[in-house]
Amino acid sequence: MHDTALAVDATLWLNSFSQALERRDIPGALTLFAQDCYWRDMVAFTWNVKTTEGKPDIAAMLTATLEHTAPCKWQLGQVSGSRSGTIEAWFTFQTSAGHGEGIFRIENGVCVSILTTLQSLHGHAEPLGAARPKGVRHGADRNRETWSEQRSRQEAAFDNGEDPYCLIIGGGQGGIMLGARLKQLGVPTIIVEKNPKAGDSWRNRYRSLVLHDPVWYDHLPYIPFPEHWPVFTPKDKMGDWLEMYVKVMELTYWGGTECISASFDEAEKRWIVHLQRDGKAITLRPTQLVFATGAYGPPKFIELPGADQFAGEILHSSRYRDGADYAGKNCIVIGAASSGHDVAVDLWEAGAEVTMVQRSPTTVVRSQTQLDLAFDIYSQVATENGIDVDRADMIAAATPFGLQPPVQRELTERIKARDADFYEKLAATGFQLDFGEDETGLMMKAYRTGSGYYVDVGASQLIIDGAIKVKSGIAIDSLTRTGMRFADGTIVPADVIIQSTGFQSMHEVVAGIVDRATADAIGPCWGLGSGTRNDPGPWQGELRNMYKPTAQEALWFQGGNLALSRFFSKFLALQIKARMEGISTPVYQTPF
Ligand SMILES: Cc1cc2nc3c(=O)[nH]c(=O)nc-3n(C[C@H](O)[C@H](O)[C@H](O)COP(=O)(O)OP(=O)(O)OC[C@H]3O[C@@H](n4cnc5c(N)ncnc54)[C@H](O)[C@@H]3O)c2cc1C
């Protein structure tokens, strides 16, 4: 279709839609949707991260939210079309609370999906661009306070016991990005981190780790990586970037500070949080508490019968640092996902004898294939075509999770066809491959369980060559003094066993810091309720408990890879800011 024709169709649809909403005519608005339809909302209508699916659910959502949201001033932005006949159109709008932006997709004149996002709050826009701070007060002033004096004064206030409005537990990338968003919104925030310095969460990982995702996908808000930045960031370089970022974004970041416990004072509507800062006990009373304690929670160990008689060392991959300690030794890596593969390569490079124990099939995608086929909107070409990371994030978000499986299945087909030879050789070693039980591949595994996949950056060839041995599909029987016995009677000698067995849900950290009852009331984090292995239903439509209100008032979760933390930190920050400003935030369908 010609561009003008696309724009006409998009204009007609948006006009009819916005007029129906302004008339509060929900049945009228629903006639503009296809039978199978999705409305994904980031805080604009629902004060939640919420996808409603199908006309009855959308009707229920609008019935509950339309009156107080009072959307208006809809304006069409860029419109484009695909060969399949889908029209994709950007738009802006206003609500009673703020300014919004979205994308709708129409087919045959009716909407198949719409994304609405709150971008800023009325009267509380971030001081950006023309609104940036002046940075100087010209004229003579005997009481002049310089920038660094002002910074020191602000930091000293917190040091001297002033309570922040928001306390973020965990100063990895997730806590840092949220801290930066809150800083820009003027929300007094302290980030507490038990490691001494920002960036240590990456530095402390094994020595050979390099990010698996390309630079275009990894930018932090406000300060994108420069043009010369490598495609794949080595972990210590990432650590340095985070440390620089904390400083330049002027975040209040308390390294060497561990959160020991927290309880919610119902009467005061504040948290009482006990910290150990450089060995000294401190109590803070923030209004909002964010757990940014690690994307996937505490390490998960598996029971190894006979562990008490094993003479060697057993550790979790999160404690593994450097293969040099194991040169010439027999090493068993339990687990065949990202960390398992990376640890196995690190050990092999150090000259260890490595056996990987695979307990369930793994989705493997070669890094270059992933780069070529899966990151089209996060790439150099996209950047040169004007799709910056914020735009790419919106485009990605415009496909709700419910519509992802067919897209991902099609991608899986292309990946399998392109690398058929590679997969054949890998399978021939006995390594068990899968692409998810519904063939939706790596990305859906990442959202559903955050586990069971590997972006191949070299380990697979070592497995094909037999340099890393694989024990697959044979149960571990028990440990002997010097090795691991399997159900088929074979024994693999071992000096060290590294459990690359993943992590528990983030809500387990809440059990340790708040209490078991609160953690159980909140329930697990992450996962979509897809009904596939380790992601039990019911279907949620969004990641459980992440970036949105939970069953515990004023308790939030932030985390995930760089891209998810970047995108969702904006909406979590707006939710917190709105509460600080006393803006009404009626949450549609809470909690989960
Ligand atoms: C091999 C591997 C490759 C990866 N590749 C990529 C990639 O390419 N791109 C990508 O985006 N992601 C990648 N990730 C995944 C993901 O981005 C990281 O796991 C990331 O570190 C998650 O960030 P986070 O801030 O949620 O958690 P973390 O980085 O784990 O930070 C949490 C912080 O909380 C602190 N903390 C915990 N409890 C307390 C407490 N009680 N008090 C104070 N502080 C506390 C911890 O010390 C830690 O620093 C990779 C991960 C691995 C293992």
Automatic annotation (TrEMBL):
<dbReference type="Pfam" id="PF13738">
    <property type="entry name" value="Pyr_redox_3"/>
</dbReference>
<dbReference type="InterPro" id="IPR050982">
    <property type="entry name" value="Auxin_biosynth/cation_transpt"/>
</dbReference>
<protein>
    <submittedName>
        <fullName>FAD-dependent oxidoreductase</fullName>
    </submittedName>
</protein>
<feature type="compositionally biased region" description="Basic and acidic residues">
    <location>
        <begin position="138"/>
        <end position="155"/>
    </location>
</feature>
<dbReference type="GO" id="GO:0050660">
    <property type="term" value="F:flavin adenine dinucleotide binding"/>
</dbReference>
<dbReference type="GO" id="GO:0004497">
    <property type="term" value="F:monooxygenase activity"/>
</dbReference>
<feature type="region of interest" description="Disordered">
    <location>
        <begin position="128"/>
        <end position="155"/>
    </location>
</feature>
<keyword id="KW-0560">Oxidoreductase</keyword>
<dbReference type="InterPro" id="IPR032710">
    <property type="entry name" value="NTF2-like_dom_sf"/>
</dbReference>
<dbReference type="InterPro" id="IPR036188">
    <property type="entry name" value="FAD/NAD-bd_sf"/>
</dbReference>
